[in-house]
Sequence to fold (108 residues):
Amino acid sequence: MKKLCGGGERRGNGRLRGRGRRDLVEFDVELEGEVESDNDPLQKMGDPTVEVLEENRDATQMAKGQAMESISEGKLEEPIEYLTEAILLNPTSAIMYATRGGILFDNL
Fold:
């Protein structure tokens, strides 16, 4: 059986078993063995209980713009710093977390 995103499995006859849906992508992943842990420091996260002021939203967008400019210049560390600043200014912005995560992933 092939494992599916979403936790289901596809039987040999093509029928789904478990939580899977037909539109999910199949993938083959080796689930045995050990995964080597990283020793990277944890990224700073914002406080989601903070009230985000309009000026913080504006500053968040400016920091994101600086991050995008740094990326276009081929810099690797600066965009992470700018996006972390943006996250601390507006910890409710999922796009900032996702953008930072994407940059970190691309630079593995």
